[in-house]
Write a structure and sequence with these properties.
Blueprint: H1 2-11, H2 16-29, E1 46-48, E2 51-53, E3 58-59, H3 70-76, E4 80-87, E5 99-102, E6 107-110, H4 119-128, E7 134-140, H5 162-166, E8 169-172
Parallel strand pairs: 3-4, 4-7, 7-8
Antiparallel strand pairs: 1-2, 5-6
The structure holds flavin mononucleotide.
Amino acid sequence: MVYRSLLRPLLFRLPAETAHELALHSLSLLPASLITKRIDNPALSIKRFGLTFPNPIGLAAGFDKNGIALQPLAALGFGFIEAGTVTCHPQPGNPRPRLFRLSEDQALINRAGFNNEGAAAFARRVSNHRPDCVLGVSIGKSKITPLENATEDRPKDRRHDGAERSEQERRVHLHGPVHSPGKGQPGGVDGGPE
Ligand SMILES: Cc1cc2nc3c(=O)[nH]c(=O)nc-3n(C[C@H](O)[C@H](O)[C@H](O)COP(=O)(O)O)c2cc1C
């Protein structure tokens, strides 16, 4: 296949985060109409939580943190997309390098630290480019918000609210302190800010 023989060896020559950005930004430039038409097979459709998923294969959070390629991603055929993690305030995440390939183990260490452009930018983008699939948004706590105010650290202002209004599913990400003990920051799968 073209991916294994050509694309993957090229991408693996790049630092992991550069490869991620290249893939995401290239996809964001593609009009959804140019991507192979998704095939919706009713046998794969499932109903859960009052939502109808065209198929059970979804995209996990972390790939499109800022919602820049949601329409092309939906056109690829995902049954749902989880965008984000988005935080109330924009934040740069941890210093680079922060993604590390462990090629021999076929694994990756991710300490991105919830880098994202913030809820307002995300909401604007999603309301202008709504994807044609179930959309979930992973919401995390901003690094600058003290842990005791974590429950307030979500977009409440209606101007920031596009994400809440447009999403059909919402996942609130409650990260365990196990990943960043004593740091006062729920870390979790994205490594959390250091
Ligand atoms: C580079 C990278 C960035 C990720 N960023 C996030 C994130 O921002 N928010 C989040 O909830 N999960 C994030 N994740 C975790 C993924 O959503 C997913 O849970 C993880 O990759 C495990 O998926 P798997 O079980 O399909 O391998 C990230 C994962 C990777 C590899």
